[in-house]
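Sorry to interrupt, but I need a hand with the structure work. Could you add the entry underneath, on a fresh line?
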Amino acid sequence: MTAIRVALVDDQALFRAGVRMLIESQDDLVFAGEAGDGAAARELAARSRPDVVLMDVRMPRVDGIQATRDILADAAAGGYQPPRIIMLTTFDLDENAARAIRIGASGFVLKDADAEFLLAAIRTVHQGNSVIAAAATRELFAHVDRGVERRPAPPSWGELTQREREIFRLAARGLSNGEIAAAEFLSEATVKTHISRVLAKLGLRDRVQLVVFAYEHLLPTED
């Protein structure tokens, strides 16, 4: 199995040293470099091509939100696989973390999380999943950015079947595959297939982005 390459971006040297030691203690992880601000993070990501980036939200010069935007844009322009980005924050309901998720981050982790949780988060996003539950994402977006103008649903929304829209609605509420399966009298494998089709049709990466999509377009999530 190929080791997961992890880069770290944070303006606190002691914090970086501790996280680096943690990552280097794991057989399946490789430390791919570190940076102290968003500008250096962009250069690091382009140079070392990490699989996962741990990104501090608040930093001098260029913050984590702009750095996330730049790194993902560089990958799209360069035609290479973008890294999964985990935002590091000190607040449970962080408006800046919400903005980072909206532009493509895979979730967020509190900076005082225990070591095992952080390691699990790295492995989780590398597998293509998010590191916060969809229900928590929904709460986050309900809490912040209340004045953001909502947009009409794009044409791709019309491509979803009635069944897919129902699955979308339940997933946007934060229900797990098992809970959706029970509600819809389906197997979990069938639900997983539906979720994959919904994400593909809407051009979304994961269930967290599905929640963001529902929030931004004011799509119904309740009966």
